[in-house]
Write a structure and sequence with these properties.
16 helices, alpha+beta, 11 strands, 18% strand, globular, eleven-stranded antiparallel beta sheet
Length: 513
Amino acid sequence: MAQSIRETERTYTAPAEISWLPDLTAVQPVATLAESGVQELDAVYYDTDDLRLTRTGASLRRRTGGTDAGWHLKLPLPHDSREEIRAPLSSEDVPPGELRELTLSRTRGAPVRPVMRIRSTRSLRHLLDAEGDVLAELSMDAVRADALVDGGGHGVWTQTEVEVEPAGDGGPALLDSIEKVLRKNGVDRTQTPSKVVHALAETTGLLDRTADARVQATPGSAGAHVLAYADRLVGDLMDLDPAVRRDLPDAVHRMRTTARRLRGCLRSYRSVLGREFTDPVRRELRWLAGELGAERDHEVLRERLASGVRDLSGELVLGPVTARMQAWDVARRAEGRRRTLDALASPRYLALLDKLQALTDAPPLRAKAAREPEKVLAEALLKEYGRLDRRMNRALPMPSGAERDAAIHHARKAAKRLRYAAEAARPALGKHARRLGKRAKAAQQVSGSQHDGVVARDALRRLAVSAHAAGEPGFTCGVLYGQERAAADARERQLPGTWADVRAAARRKALLR
């Protein structure tokens, strides 16, 4: 069974002539440094032939020696942090299936094999406060690297590599203070993100020989702005995949939203990126969001109904309402989870990841991609606004009922696309795009809450029918149904004012300036 830890550390490279450490007791609240022995570490790193893990900031290794021998999968996190997922050593030199599965969004199904062996002699010191509590761990490594790929060589770090990792009450402020002392004494942050990157650069030249051959948009152009947004979303999708597989909180929601954002970007900026490539990608993103939606939509609905029951006074809760909802929840949740995992295990998903990689490596840039971003992105925003305008003008005058509910939901989708298009345009259009996106989000939320009420009322009706068939009272479901109807009416009354705010923000002169 794999276990996960979050580690935060900073790595430094000292000049070859420095084999000592400056006095770190000058750093508050460090009082003493305690020697903690020497470890002999032996790690074999696994990757694809084209180094897909290394290139995306991840690493997979089998390490012996030290206190944490085992299989380690490291995934990047913000702010000098990484998540390390550990699995026990096995008799075979094959990465555990659980860890291989967590790398799929990066490897895209390509096999992994040993690419590098790194042996380190590590001297450990603990930084202690006045009470003897450990504030941080400092390690000094002498490293030898041997490439395990064709044409590889070996390298020896003649300089000292220093790693500082906080522990206990240590934190970013302590790391900052330690770094100031180290830098004053000629010990600077390493220029490579990890040992394996350094080793590959020193011994094989693979990173240079397969250097980034991506098609680049003209810096500062409309294409550059759109691609920067799309690249970030593709990276987010890849990073969220392991979290979804492990069922971490909010991971499905975030991955689904990322897929929708990316799909919206490819639709809104068709004047920049060619449709012959992006339209098929959009269809697959729609499929992925739909498969994730079964689990996510049920999460939202379950919490909405459970919260409704909790908020009712006792005399309004008749019969085994909670038990019936729990039984309904278990069945629906299992179905949604199965759909999510089946989607991520499918060849269709891996093919989508390949297409997204191709999109970022060789984007299908159109002529407008080379133009100044202000006009191109503003025109795309105005086009999305026009679509929302038509849908809102159709929905708002309609009488209440199922047809109006559907029309508002249709307008909500357009508001969401306008919001996402504005997000991509913010670096170029500044406060005008930010204001428009913020107000489009408000319209999306109001109309979305109205739609959630429609879905909740349908679920309550079904639960009431099931309760009636079992001889149970459906009164409580009826009370909740009435509350949802009243809340939906309030949202419908709020929508015209929210829409007026969007219209005020979508002034052509302001956007095109």
